[in-house]
Amino acid sequence: MKKSITLFFLLTIINVVSGQSSILNKQKSTIQKDSIKKSKAVAEVQENKLDSLITTLGTFKTYKKEAHASYYADKFNGKRTASGTKFDNKRYTAAHKKLPFGTKVKVTNEKNGKWVIVEITDRGPFVKSREIDLSKRAFMDITSHKGSGGMLVTIAVLDN
Predict the structure, then answer these.
(1) Spatial distance between the Cα atoms of 136 and 73, rounded to a whole number of angstroms
(2) Is the pLDDT of residue 30 over 60?
(3) Count of CB atoms situated within 10 Å of the CB of 3
(4) pLDDT tens figures, 100-113
(5) Which of 16, 36, 48, 79 is the most buried (most CB within 10 A)?
(6) Are 152 and 111 spatial neighbours (Cβ–Cβ below 8 Å)?
């Protein structure tokens, strides 16, 4: 019972952060049945968001304001990144020119205040005016206009 309450609490926080109330309602009914298999499935679906939630417990130090962010093209899906991992546009990852691989970064859209936490897994972008390349999922979660290819963001690094 304690585990299901804790999981429900975590999913409620995730819902507040991501604004996905319809997903929470489905998960809430799943959790109330108290099935271990279903609870694991819910946790697996929310794996990236749980990871993001856990890292928010740390503090973030501002790295750069008014940085230009863009996102990866679909053609890079499944290709190897500079860190050696396979790139997946559905995960919360990013490319940066200097930050070490594995660094957790909070990227905040300066226009609307939406933010996402990503992990640096690649080098780039290789355009002088851009500071960070986000996965498509991360970019679409925080952008104001889905048709745009770039936005101004604030980059903050997780301070351990």
Answers:
(1) 8
(2) no
(3) 11
(4) 999 999 999 999 99
(5) 48
(6) yes
Check whether domain 59-159 has CATH 2.40.40.10, yes or no:
yes
Residue holding tokens 């991992």?
A: 85
Crossing angle between the packed helical segments 21-32 and 36-45, to the nearest 10 degrees:
160
Which strand (E) or helix (H) includes residue 62? strand 59-71
* CA–CA dist 144, 158 (Å, integer): 24
The amino acid at residue 121 is T
Give the span between the Cα atoms of 88 and 22, in whole angstroms: 25
Give the pLDDT of residue 27. 43
CA distance linking residue 94 with residue 96, whole number of Å = 7
Q: CA-to-CA distance for 139 and 146, rounded, in angstroms?
A: 9
CA 105 distance to own-chain centroid: 9
Q: pTM of this prediction?
A: 0.65
Token pair, residue 113, equals: 């205040």
How do the domains of the chain map onto residue ranges? Answer: 2-55, 59-159
C-alpha dihedral, 134 to 13 to 114 to 26, nearest 10°: 80
Instruction: For residue 90, give the nearest of 55, 139, 130, 56 by alpha carbon.
Output: 139
